[in-house]
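Quiz preparation item.
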């Protein structure tokens, strides 16, 4: 595996689908989305080589996803086009810009050829929980980790699809245990761990194995926890006018992974060692990049992937 930051190839595993977004005025538009796909697009926009292992059909919506992947510079892995239909997420935007979702989807993932080519692997959301694909994803994460790849994970909870919180939590924690970096939202924490203090959840999940756990808090910014030192810091968000929150967490995730890749803290076994030896000051710049990426996204309608030029 490559240890040079500029040559780290990332594999994103997870759903690519079509977001059918209904706005407060009743107008509905369709956009290519899916949390892992958005992360892949975000990483590509930030000039990181990235492949996407997903589950789409060869129908019209699947063709649209293929076209967007091609336009964004994201390569689909072999086997990604075996689905009977392309999944749809129906998103309704309220007057505050917040989105609620109803899904029409099926999820599994084919074996990924050439797993040794990837120095970093990311997954999250529906893909790591919904069966039969959830078990396949966790097996791929374990295999990639064994080969030396670093791993990032975003639970991005979807209560309408993930069953009871206690069931989902067991699956989420099994993925956290395979990850080096975990990012989740305060809403994820509230749903998965009702009534539990954020500090307690952060400490417990850090003990499962990740070197860094970051919790986003919308307009209040983010909290970052470094496992080795126990350091924890709240970082403020940039003040922006919110159009909608679609894709904001995915842009944050892409910015976080990008920042850690650029710092040499993700991307192969030596990078894993550096990350697990890191102190808070080593990872704060990556979290700040993530916050900036998320802020740029909520200023625009739909998922938006900022480029390096825009972030600077």
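Solution:
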């Amino acid at each position: 595996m490559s240890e040079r930051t500029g040559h780290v190839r990332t594999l994103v595993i997870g759903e690519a689908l079509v977001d059918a977004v209904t706005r407060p005025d009743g107008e509905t538009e369709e956009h290519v989305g899916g949390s892992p796909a958005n992360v892949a697009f975000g990483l590509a926009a930030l000039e990181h080589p990235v492949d996407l292992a997903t589950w789409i059909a060869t129908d019209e919506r699947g063709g649209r996803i293929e076209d967007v992947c091609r336009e964004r510079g994201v390569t689909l892995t072999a086997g990604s086009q075996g689905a009977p239909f392309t999944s749809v997420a129906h998103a309704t935007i309220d007057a505050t810009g917040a989105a609620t979702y109803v899904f029409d989807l099926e999820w599994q993932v084919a074996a990924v050829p050439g797993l040794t080519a990837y120095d970093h692997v990311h997954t999250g959301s529906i893909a790591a929980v919904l069966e039969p694909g959830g078990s396949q994803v966790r097996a791929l994460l374990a295999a990639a980790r064994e080969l030396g790849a670093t791993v990032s994970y975003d639970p991005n909870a979807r209560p309408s699809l993930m069953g009871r919180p206690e069931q989902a939590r067991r699956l989420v924690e099994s993925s956290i245990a395979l990850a080096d970096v975990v990012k989740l939202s305060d809403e994820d924490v509230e749903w998965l761990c009702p009534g539990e203090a954020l500090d307690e959840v952060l400490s417990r999940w850090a003990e499962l194995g990740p070197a860094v756990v970051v919790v986003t808090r919308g307009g209040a910014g983010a909290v970052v926890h470094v496992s080795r030192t126990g350091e924890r810091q709240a970082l403020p968000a940039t003040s922006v006018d919110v159009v909608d929150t679609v894709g904001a967490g995915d842009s944050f995730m892409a910015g976080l992974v990008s920042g850690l890749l650029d710092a040499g803290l993700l991307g192969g076994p030596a990078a894993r060692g550096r990350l697990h030896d890191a102190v808070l000051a080593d990872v704060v710049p990556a979290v700040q990049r993530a916050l900036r990426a998320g802020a740029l996204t909520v200023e625009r309608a739909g998922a938006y992937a900022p480029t390096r030029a825009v972030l600077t």
